[in-house]
């Protein structure tokens, strides 16, 4: 018998002996004797209210829940009848217990309890989280608080990797040097100065995901980060610049109209149109989603038939709220398509507009000029009402897509689209749906 076999045999006998001893002691507390890393893994999966209830199990369990590595304050923590201020009082009661007994790291904190935080109390809690090495800080759905002021030292937490803020006023410290560990940033209904937002984005060297929604009073939105991979914007802005962001993989931009402009929108003499300026650095993008108002913004200036560099790696294009009565939007739509030679999937949602003869003539000219979607396999068009411009675009897709496999058209008020269109692909399957 080898030495290894002898050791394995002894280990097996010892394990069997321990198992026999535990079986002969049915009242032994196996859970309490688990390593803390396992107990923490189990308890953080429970609602915080249930984790706190484990304190009644025994004196040994009285304060175990206060040492968790993650804390989630949500609706499950409190009765629905409690007001916002009372809920925050309950939050503080729990927080004070945590501060009294917690002596390890806290990796994640999430507040989504529809409460009304007191700024001073919240500041002290954030300072405590910073001292405990917080990695994920999420503030959502704060009831009735508009522009909750956050302490500037939140933006100096050295290990912060995920930051999500809702309804806050953010002030970046004057000596801000960056968040070196931040990978994901999401700001919703946040008040932040344009230059502060630019500095925040620029000085997070490993930032990969950026989501901006309903940000207040953005005049010029500059996105400058070489590591950024995912960008989603649903906000008002008057101008935008994507620079040094060549690794962007997915871009989704919905521009909310600005009715009072503070920045002149005239195109400077000799300056390229917004379409070329915005997309010239997105050569590696694989998913692109644009809205109608942003298409209108991109049309500022003379729209080229196509632009360079082309978006060679883009297989999926999603265009929303397209107005087929707007020659500018249709021209941008076509220019983008012509600059995506390898697009395989096209999704378009249509916003109802009246027909326009210039749009009709433009689309007919494209059909006659040999324009092709050489790689297009799947097309979905939603919201058609039957205008001649819409029908001509469907005709363009069918006539110029030799590899098209499926076309799905969802219509308002039409039983089905006419089947008189020429089809470049003999195998295309057309599905017509009524909304």
TrEMBL record:
Residues 31-71 form the F-box domain. InterPro entries: F-box-like_dom_sf, F-box_dom, LRR_dom_sf, LRR_FXL15/At3g58940/PEG3-like. It holds the Pfam family F-box. Residues 1-14 have a biased composition (Basic and acidic residues). The lineage of its organism: Eukaryota, Viridiplantae, Streptophyta, Embryophyta, Tracheophyta. It comes from Acer yangbiense. PANTHER family: F-BOX DOMAIN-CONTAINING PROTEIN, F-BOX PROTEIN-LIKE. Residues 1-22 are annotated as: Disordered. Residues 122-348 form the F-box/LRR-repeat protein 15/At3g58940/PEG3-like LRR domain. This is F-box domain-containing protein.
């Amino acid at each position: 018998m080898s030495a290894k076999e002898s050791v394995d045999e002894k280990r097996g006998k010892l394990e069997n002996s321990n198992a026999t001893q535990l079986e002969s002691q049915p009242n032994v507390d196996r859970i309490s004797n688990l390593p803390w890393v396992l107990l923490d893994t189990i308890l953080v999966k429970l609602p915080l209210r249930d984790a706190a209830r484990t304190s009644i199990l025994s004196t040994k369990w009285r304060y175990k829940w206060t040492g968790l590595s993650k804390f989630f304050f949500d609706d499950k923590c409190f009765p629905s009848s409690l007001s916002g201020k009372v809920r925050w009082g309950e939050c503080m009661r729990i927080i004070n217990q945590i501060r009294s007994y917690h002596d390890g790291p806290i990796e994640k904190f999430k507040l989504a309890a529809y409460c009304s935080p007191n700024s001073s109390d919240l500041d002290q809690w954030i300072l405590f989280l910073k001292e405990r090495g917080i990695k994920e800080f999420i503030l959502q759905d704060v009831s009735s608080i508009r522009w909750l002021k956050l302490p500037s030292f939140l933006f100096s937490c050295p290990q912060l990797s995920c930051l999500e803020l809702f309804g806050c006023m953010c002030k970046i410290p004057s000596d801000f040097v960056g968040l070196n560990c931040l990978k994901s940033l999401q700001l919703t209904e946040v008040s932040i100065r344009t230059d502060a937002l630019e500095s925040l984005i620029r000085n997070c060297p490993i930032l990969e995901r950026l989501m901006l929604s309903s940000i207040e009073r953005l005049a010029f939105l500059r996105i400058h980060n070489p590591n950024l991979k995912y960008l989603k914007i649903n906000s008002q802005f008057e101008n935008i610049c994507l620079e040094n962001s060549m690794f962007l993989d997915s871009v989704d931009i919905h521009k909310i109209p600005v009715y009072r402009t503070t920045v002149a929108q005239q195109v400077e003499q000799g300056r390229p149109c917004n379409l070329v300026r915005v997309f010239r650095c997105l050569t590696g993008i694989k998913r692109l989603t644009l809205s109608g108002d942003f298409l209108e913004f991109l049309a500022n200036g003379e729209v080229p038939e196509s632009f360079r560099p082309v978006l060679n790696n883009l297989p999926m294009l999603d265009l929303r709220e397209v107005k087929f009565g707007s020659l500018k939007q249709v021209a941008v739509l076509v220019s983008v398509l012509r600059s995506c030679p390898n697009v395989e999937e096209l999704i378009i949602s249509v916003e109802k507009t009246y027909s326009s003869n210039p749009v009709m003539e433009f689309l007919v000219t494209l059909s006659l000029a040999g324009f092709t979607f050489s790689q297009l396999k799947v097309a979905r068009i939603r919201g058609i009402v039957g205008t001649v411009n819409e029908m001509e675009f469907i005709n363009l897709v069918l006539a110029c897509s030799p590899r098209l496999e499926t076309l799905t058209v969802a219509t308002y008020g039409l039983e089905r689209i006419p089947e008189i269109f020429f089809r470049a692909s003999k195998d295309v399957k057309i599905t017509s749906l009524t909304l």
